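Protein Record: Sequence and Backbone Structure Tokens
======================================================
Scope: a single protein chain, as residues and as a discrete description of its fold.
Tokens: labelled as protein backbone structure tokens, with as many entries as the chain has residues.
Position: the record begins directly beneath this header, with no further notes in between.
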Amino acid sequence: MKQFKWTTMLVALSVLVTLSACGNTEGTSASGDDTLQGSVVIDGSGTVYPFMALMAENYMYNEEEGVSVEVSRAGTSAGFKKFLVDENGTDFNDASRQIKDEEAALAEELGIEVKELKVALDGLTFVVHPDNTWATELTQEEVIQIFLGEKKNWSDIREDFPDEPINTYGPNENHGTYEFFWEEILDEQDLVEGVNLQQEYSTLVDLVSKDEYAIGFFGYGYYVNNTDKISAVNVDFGNGPVEPSLDTIAEDGEYAPFTRPVFTYLNVNLAKEKPQVLDFAIYTMKNAAQVAEETGFAPLPAEDLQKAVEELEALQQ
């Protein structure tokens, strides 16, 4: 599988994707119109960022050179605050969770028509230091106990593990990944006191890579692009340990309990006003499967993506 190496792109909080990148893959034309001009502004999920950054590169390099696509990664919740505003809101908000009821209500109050576009599947991945040779396999319950603080030392989990404190890491509350973990996995119970929560995923990778007694969590793509620095924990959901991979991450697959869809949300009002925004939305769904595999996400079924394309194309009429 060809992997898009985006680790070095994860230094700055906000990045304007430029035409200087190379090694792009060929994309499918969204409209065939080569006269589009203007900008597309995207913010939101850091997890979805690598997917959307490559999509933007491909679009500008292969499809519409006259359109500038800016992709930032404030986090899902912080991104919705920029998306759901009266004026000068973003065109898209990437999200690693579904829009909340209160966010949908705000959109309705503001008169913003929002379209949810499910773009790929991600597997919540637990990572450790490469020298951690004891916790290569954990049960789902053990993972939960660690992040609830019920197991404070590695030896609390199993007697043959080191008698050393467990140092926990994860993304902060701005991220949909945090919210998914807290809501869906921990059933809204408080994370362990002292957990090290960070805004930047590159910082999390660096911290875990330097801490022999660490365990952290984030999307599969951040693991698969840093396998030289960190190792993944195989999780036993009751039928033996399962390695997170593009083969096991699926809503009905072996890694299903830690699998989640990821999205981008389109401001339909702006898409109707700005042809380049709608064109980029169509291009994204036409090329979602290919870009997903290149950035560490499991692709959605072709029929689901085609249905989304047809719904977007209907907006052109």
Remarks:
- The longest helix spans residues 49-63.
- The longest strand covers residues 114-128.
- The chain has a mean pLDDT of 90.
